[in-house]
Amino acid sequence: MQRQLIETQTSNFKTFLMYKTQLMTLAENVFEFLNMPEEIDIAYMNEHLLRDGAVAFFKDEVADQFAVLPFGKHGEFDMYGRPIRVDVFGMNGYTRTLEKDEFVIIYDNNRRESLFLDLLQYAERMGQCKRVIDINIAHQKTPRIWLAKNDKVATMKRLLNQYEGNVETIMGYDNINLDDVNCIFQPAPYVADKIDQHLDREFAEFLRLIGVANLTQQKKERLITDEVQQTQGGTIASRFSRFEPRARAIEKINKKWNLNIKVRYYDGEPTTENEEQEGKNNDVLSNNANVSNISKIAM
Questions:
Q1: Does 99 fall in a domain?
Q2: Residues 95 and 151 grouped into a single domain
Q3: In-domain check, residue 197
Q4: What is the tens place of the pLDDT at every residue in 98-132?
Q5: How far apart are alpha carbons 111 and 272 in whole angstroms?
Q6: How confident is the model at residue 187 (pLDDT cuts 50, 70, 90)?
Q7: Which of 96, 105, 14 is nearest to 56 (CA)?
Q8: What does pTM read for this prediction?
Q9: Cα angle at 57 between 56 and 58, to 5 degrees?
Q10: Which among 146, 207, 208, 154 is positioned nearest to 181, based on CA atoms?
């Protein structure tokens, strides 16, 4: 029993980690940076924007290259609560104190807070939904509870083992009482489909949080563009909250170091130029429409 409990807890934790990884991958990869200096690790920058809520962009004069790293605050702030001095640090032990005019802070959202705790909440909820589905499906095997007298337990175990192995069994007896053995069937109700719908809603709510367009409304008819846009109000607001601080920081970076970096919200599939043009000319979206067709809303 103890081993079974440990295995169950391990499965729960693995499911949580699975959703945590998937949600982090989604949240980190909804922005595309163009013309970023080659020495900058964009994946590392996106990870710490999500985890910490902010990173510092600066130029290392000694190495003569740009860098984007997480930082610790010195405790000195301007009138808007922005740090005047920061201590940046890298994975290899690199540290440096930057003064006000030596760095530009890139925030993940207009709240200037990390979305990581929210992401963990969604991962936990979605993991619980998935485990309930797994358990409910497993219970469709209709577990059997056998009742027997204490002196018949060993015989019943041997009989059931042979039954599961499709072995014909002959048992001899002097007298038998059929009331001594009873089988109770307790089939579990099938609710996996309802939990699956709830899981879809949790996932749609997370996509809304990170600003990814999604269609959760179930309709048989096709949706026109105006109808799609009306259902995406929360998504557009979240998208603006995450896109605007990045765009503002990139504008400052380009002006300060004479660069030409660009950032845009990316939630479509890589397509050819012809396919992109066809998408722009199509004013009607089906339930399975590519969300890149409405990405222009937040730009």
A1: yes
A2: no
A3: no
A4: 998 999 999 999 999 999 999 999 999 999 999 99
A5: 36
A6: low
A7: 105
A8: 0.73
A9: 115
A10: 146
Q: Give CA–CA dist 123/11, Å, rounded.
A: 14
Apex 108 CA angle, 126 and 250, nearest 5 = 145
**Hey, which bits of the chain come out as E strands?**
31-34, 54-60, 65-69, 71-73, 86-89, 95-98, 103-107, 144-147, 182-185, 223-224, 262-265, 284-285
What is the distance between the alpha carbons of residues 267 and 235, in angstroms, rounded to a whole number?
12
How far is residue 217 from each of residues 131, 195, 228, 239, measured CA to CA in Å? 25, 17, 9, 20
Extract the tokens encoding 183: 């089988």
Confirm whether 164 is domain-assigned: yes
Do residue 158 and residue 110 come from a single domain?
A: no
CATH number at residue 162: 3.30.1350
Does residue 41 form part of some domain?
yes
- Our separate counts of H helices and E strands in the chain read 8, 12
Number of domains in the chain: 2
CATH number of the domain encompassing residue 101? 2.40.500.10
CA distance 159 to 172: 13
Q: Please say whether the beta carbons of 97 and 74 come within 8 A.
A: yes
96/45 same-domain check = yes
- The answer on 240 and 181 residing in a single domain is no
Same-domain check for residues 57 and 111: yes
Domain that holds residue 48: 26-115+236-270
Point out the least confidently predicted range of 15-19, 55-59, 192-196, 230-234.
230-234
Asked if 67 and 40 touch (Cβ cutoff 8 Å), the reply is yes
The 8-class DSSP code of residue 189 comes to P
Cα distance between residue 292 and residue 8, in whole Å: 40
Of 220, 236, 207, give the one whose Cα is nearest residue 286.
220
Q: Are residues 95 and 47 in the same domain?
A: yes
Whether 156 and 109 share a structural domain: no
Q: Which two tokens stand for residue 96?
A: 């440096």
Q: Is the dihedral of CA 296, 26, 109, 38 positive or negative?
A: negative
